[in-house]
Each structure stands twice: as C-alpha cells, then as structure tokens.
Amino acid sequence: MANTENPASILRRRSLFFRVLVAAGCAGVVILVFVLFFGVGRWLVVEDPLEKARAIAVLSGRMPLRAIEAAKLYRQGYAPEVWLTHSSEPGETLKRMGISFAGEDYYNARVLVHEGVPPEAIHVLERPVVNTADEIKVLAAALALEKDRTVILVTTRPHTRRARLLWRKLAAGQGRAIVRASSDDSFDPKHWWRTTNDALDVLREVLGLVNAWAGLPLHASQ
C-alpha cells in the first residue's frame, strides 16, 4: 500500500524531533555545567592517609597556615625533620637596591620554632624555586638521597590535587609523597564561589591543573 502521508507532516515531525533533540542536548550541557561548577571545589581537595615519613615539607604560600600544620605533624611524631624551600626573588633584586629582605622561608622557620619545632630539625633546601613544580623537583632530589624516601607535603586544601599531580609527573621513582592540607584552612569547597579568595583559588588551581596535564608548557616568570 502506497504511503499517502503528507510531506509537510513528515517535515513537521522531523523538525519537532530535531528541536526536542537540541533541547535535550542543551539541558544536558546545563546540568553538566552545574555539576562541574558546584563540584569543582570538593574535587580539588584530596588527602592521603598519614604515616611516618623522612620529612615534612612545607610548600610555599599561605603563610603561616602550612607551617603551623607542619609543626603539628612534627609534634605528633610523623617525621624527624621539617623541610623548607626558598625563592631567590624578590630578595636578590632588593639586595641590589640596598634593601634587606627576609624571605618566606625565614618566617616559616620562625613559625615552626614558635610552634615547638627545634631549630636543628628545620632544614632549608639550597636550590631556589619559583613555583610548585620547582618545589617538587627540589624536594624529590633531596629525598632521593635519603634511605627513607617518603615525604609529607603540607599545603592548603585547594592546592592538594595539583601538588599530588605534579609529584606523580615530576618525581616518579624518586620517592613517595603523602599530600596533606592545613586543618585550619578556611577554604570552603562546597561554597567556593561565595568569597573572592576561594574563587581565585579555584580558578588558579584549575588553570594550574590544565597546564600540568598539558605537560607544563607555561612556565612562571623569573
């Protein structure tokens, strides 16, 4: 039997199907965006189970939170030493201008002593760093010289995932890192968009993760 359906009716039905398909696709994209937006803060925060290590390393930034957490872990007996990194800038530039400058490592060391870490247990690693990737390389090189090749990396909550990723990319085979966040960090992973600091943290970490996944094509300015 011949198909007597009106061609216009067929076109209308196909057009309706196409519009429904587009609407469903748009709805799916909106839902995905909502899930990513509201979930990214929690996704950024990762921590590893604590165990004893050769040293506790304080990653640069957010002074004094990270140093305070490192001191807490030291007092709990998780490692016999606390390692600090240091940057050559802006100290060298200021020195040429005749202006004295005490770097972040100096103040972190003061915080550690204040929190009960003896000065002889604090070690500032020699090679200067610029960013987290540099810190990972310096820490891994120091750890490779030790018999116990486990280090606890202390950072702040939104920085934990990137710190873990960079260790896996840059320090594979040179030791094991236990990533821990400061327990006093005010970052709110469930409502990160409510404050400027948290929003900037999320933006910086997402961009940093993309750079790490891409093989670190972008480098920090010296």
pLDDT averaged residue by residue: 89
Structural class: alpha/beta
Query: Quaternary state, please?
Result: single chain
Largest sheet: 5 strands, parallel
Biggest sheet strand line-up: 3-2-1-4-5
Number of strands: 5
Which percent bin holds the helix content? 40-55%
Structure at a glance:
The protein has helices at 7-44, 65-75, 91-96, 104-114, 132-144, 160-170, 196-213, and strands at residues 55-58, 82-84, 122-124, 150-155, 176-181. It is α/β, with parallel strands linked by helices.
List keywords for this structure.
alpha/beta; Rossmann fold; 222 residues; 7 helices
How would you describe the overall organization of this protein?
This protein has 222 residues and is α/β, with parallel strands linked by helices. It has a domain at 55-187: HUPs (Rossmann fold). It contains 7 helices and 5 strands. The protein has a 5-stranded parallel sheet with strand order 3-2-1-4-5, sandwiched between helices. Strand 1 (55-58), helix 2 and strand 2 form a beta-alpha-beta unit. Helix 5 crosses helix 6. The longest helix has 38 residues, at 7-44. The N and C termini lie far apart (80 Å).
